[in-house]
Amino acid sequence: MSDLSIKGIAKRFGDVVALDRADLDLARGELMTILGPSGSGKTTLLRIIAGFEQPDEGSVLVRGNDVTALAPAKRNMGMVFQNYALFPHMTVAENVAFPLQMRHASRSEIAERVGWALDTVALGTLGARYPAQLSGGQQQRVALARAIVFDPELLLLDEPFGALDRKLREQMQMEVKRLQRRLNLTTVFVTHDQEEALILSDSIAIMNAGRIEQLGTPREIYAQPGNRFVADFIGESNLFRGRVSSVRNDLLAIEIDGGETLHAKAHEGMAAGDEVSALIRPERPQPATGTGNGPNTFRGEITEVVYLGESEKYRVSLASGVEFLIRWPGRTTGTARTEGAELSFTVDPEDLHIIPDGEARQ
Question: Which NCBIfam families does this UniProt record tie to the protein (predicted)?
Fold first, then answer.
């Protein structure tokens, strides 16, 4: 039995379709990220799970029980918001105790659970402080402690790290991941940050215009996107429209816009004339060696160099006008690659992901 089941959830706001019959299932202890651009419906879906919005259609089931009509306080779900939502006039301990007081827990239970929750988020010595006396990261830990103190069946997080700087955000991501694993908490995490989703998730649901475009593991979503929207949305990409010109010796030859030809591993059911999109992630091309005349070997001019420390990005323009984005480890020795220099590179046919035209819609 799934810990959380979303069945046919639909929601409209006037003429705007916020959710178009969304379906999801989370297993016990799974961390699922709902990822999508602004306006994709991800926060609306989370608010329906939490009970802050009612769906027009569909149902929300927690461990087999239909909670669609229950008020938020009756759903036994912990929630962490981007703005922390702490009570400024209460101490840290009082903020964390609040959900237990609403559940009429005894004083001894409150003291025990609050102590445990604060120790769990490494704030055991700060219970007497007020939110204004804490850093942003500490306030977020208080919000997290308040969300887990009553042993919720589900943990919901709505872009909780959006207000933190990059270094602190990365630290909090790993802390939440460790905490979630240790407590085996079934968790739904909403974000627009692709890197955050790849780091945290057991599974990712990609949303666009109220629809779930693809559901899969981070590796599946990144390496095998199911349609052109997902391929373009997740990570950086070289994404080319083209047509299969031949199928020979387990290789597809694909003529792309601009007149170049790409070779990819043959896909079952694909034939000459099929329209496709071809995806090459920027880290997959490799420097060309030898004569440089094999399949998927290209030569072009570097038109842009971006140094990122651990890596460098190059925009390479071929004579045909086709452009490639390439990301390789940063060079610490030797001559740096510069704008205007020539670069030869090759792409293994297995490193191309082909999206049939039926799934290539934007």
Answer: potA (TIGR01187)
